[in-house]
Amino acid sequence: MGQCCFSDCQLYEYLYIKEDKTWTEAQQYCREKHTDLATVSNMRDMKRLNISAGGQRDVWIGLYDPKDVNRTWYWSLPGVEFNESETNWNTGEPTDKGNPVSENCGFLYKNLTWADTGCQHKRYFLCYDETNKTQKYHLIREMKTWQEAQSYCRENHTDLISGLKQLQDEELKNVMKSTDQEPYFGLFRDTWRWSDGSSFSFRHWKNDLNNQQYNSDQCAASAFNDEGRWKNDSCDQKKPFICYNGDF
């Protein structure tokens, strides 16, 4: 395979299967005839997925939410791995006290330490821009939910600020001096897992899923009447689906 990774090399192809199956039936079909149900690692993959499906009905992809797993922290920016031994939580955090909605999204205190909060709350947020040579970090002074903030950053910049390297940058420290707000950044956690065991953190949910429950025993479908954004549905529903062929 060489030194390239899933998100950089197209060593796989997506295949639209126009047969209505439950998610488990679709998974079995893909594993028998191809590699597995589709895994999506970034927006480039998402565009290819849209093309392969040809704007058809909702289709199953390889993301599911099992009952018996713990929530895992991820970074929003694809390719940045979360390391439990390299964190900067504020004292006492994460608290996860947002009953009945768990606290699954991160925000920054003025001193750049982290805290968790409910993703449905609206805050300023921090975007990262890898193509801007003069300004990498942007404080967006608009009140949005975490998911709305993620969509904004991906549409107008690169993504929410993610990873210790970005969070320790002097440029970001200067940006934070300009506000007394406590903005969102690219930290989130969930219980969703990929069928092929990949650890990719990429998510492309519809913006009305901010209050979704976890360990829901549901599966993810790409909704092509909503630009391919994902929604959760009962795994027993029958839908067409997308497999991938690949060599990992």
Automatic annotation (TrEMBL):
Domain of life: Eukaryota
InterPro entries assigned: C-type_lectin-like, C-type_lectin-like/link_sf, C-type_lectin_CS, CTDL_fold
Domain C-type lectin per the UniProt entry, residue ranges: 14-128, 137-244
Keywords linked to the UniProt accession: Disulfide bond
Keyword Disulfide bond on entry: yes
SMART domains registered for this protein in UniProt: CLECT
Protein name: C-type lectin domain-containing protein
Organism: Ilyodon furcidens
